[in-house]
Amino acid sequence: MTDMTERNRTDSPDIEKEGQQTRKPTRRGGGDPASRGRTTIADGVVEKIAGLAARDVVGVHTMGSGLSRTFGAVRDRVPGGSTKSVTRGVKAEVGEVQTALDLEIVVDYGVSITEVARAVRENVIAAVERMTGLEVVEVNIAVSDVKLPEEEDEEPESRLQ
């Protein structure tokens, strides 16, 4: 063999080398797999996330107006009724990339309402954006009541243990 033939044999990318194949990997579909398809998030999902995040803030006694809390207490006592609703006091409008939220809260007496509202907004926005990827464009907060220390809770404890 000549030098030229030996060099052509070892440098040629199209010729199989010992045990190696030079086949190019095939790609199916096109582009990033994350861009193939569509994800939709229901209003109820965002409402649950926002409700849980709002309840985590110190100074928030409960969520919802007096009427919705009363209906919720009745619904909780009915056999087969839902457990404590995390969406009570939360309304969400969800688009493809953005969401807007309306929250109704009851604060504990003695706390700064403006500070509680600020903390609720921050917590809700962080939780919703992190979990859903949606941009939260607004969080409107309505303070419907103040829980006084001597007031009894509207939802009595269960007689069963």
What does it look like?
The chain is an alpha+beta fold and about 160 residues long. The protein has four helices and four strands; from the N terminus they run ααβαββαβ. The protein has helices spanning about 5-10, 45-55, 65-75, 115-130, and strands at about 60-65, 90-95, 100-110, 135-145. Strands 1, 2, 3 and 4 form a four-stranded mixed beta sheet that branches. The longest helix is centred in the last third of the chain and has 20 residues, at about 115-130.
Give a brief rundown of this model:
The chain has 161 residues and is an alpha+beta fold. It is built from four helices and four strands; from the N terminus they run ααβαββαβ.
Q: pLDDT below 50 for ≥5 consecutive residues: which ranges?
A: none
Q: Decide which structural class fits the backbone.
A: alpha+beta
| Beta strands, count | 4
Overall pLDDT score: 80
How much of the residues is beta strand, in percent? 15-25%
Largest β sheet strand count, sense and barrel closure:
4 strands, mixed
Distance between the termini: 94 Å
In N-to-C order, the SSE pattern is HHEHEEHE
Q: Report the radius of gyration as a whole number of Å.
A: 29 Å
Helix content: 25-40%
Tally of helical segments: 4
- Estimate the global geometry from the Cα principal axes: elongated
Looking at this protein, list some descriptive labels.
single chain, alpha+beta, 4-stranded mixed beta sheet, 4 strands, about 35% helix
Q: Which SSEs are present, and which pair or pack?
A:
Elements: H1 3-11, H2 43-55, E1 60-63, H3 66-77, E2 90-94, E3 98-108, H4 113-132, E4 135-147
Parallel strand pairs: 3-4
Antiparallel strand pairs: 1-3, 2-3
